[in-house]
Specification:
The protein has two helices and seven strands; from the N terminus they run E-E-E-E-E-H-H-E-E. By secondary structure, the chain is an alpha+beta fold. It has a domain of about 50 residues. A three-stranded antiparallel β-sheet has the order 1-2-3, with no helix packed on it. A hairpin with a 5-residue loop joins strand 1 and strand 2. The mean pLDDT is about 85.
């Protein structure tokens, strides 16, 4: 029996063939391949052709689903790795901040601060107005 398998709207596959008894044109979903039906014109029993194509189509669907699942798992693994790295970086930053807060200032920090104060004192002579902060002023 000659037949043709084609795509229909919505992604469905259709088998087009002729009734072996009366040659009426018949269309059937590919999912019906291998099943027995009666011809709508002459009531002759026939088996819908296209079983190899249906099996191939199902295998393609299984492979496509497996690929989508694999891609989804890969995306989830990348997201989990990014979250792990972010959490690890945040933990390292918190640990560094806690360590810095717990350590007394180093000698170089103190001497750098003293140098800055000496520079500021040498570079400008404060006026009485520069010693005022809002409503409170230094005596002078």
């Amino acid at each position: 029996m000659k037949y043709q398998v084609r795509k229909a709207s919505g992604g469905k596959r259709i088998v087009s063939f002729q009734c072996p008894a009366c040659s009426s044109e018949i269309e059937s979903p590919l999912e019906d391949a291998g099943q027995a039906f009666d011809c709508p014109s002459c009531a002759h029993k026939f088996v819908t052709p296209g079983l190899p194509e249906m099996q191939q189509w199902r295998n393609e669907q299984i492979e496509a689903e497996a690929k989508r699942t694999e891609e989804q798992r890969a995306r989830e693994a990348r997201a989990a790795e990014m979250n792990r790295v972010k959490a690890e970086t945040a933990a390292q930053q918190r640990a560094a901040a806690a360590k810095a807060a717990a350590e007394p200032p180093s000698y170089s920090d103190i001497t750098d601060g003293a140098k800055l104060l000496r520079f500021l004192a040498a570079s400008s002579t404060p006026s009485p107005s520069s010693l005022c902060l809002g409503a409170s002023c230094w005596p002078g």
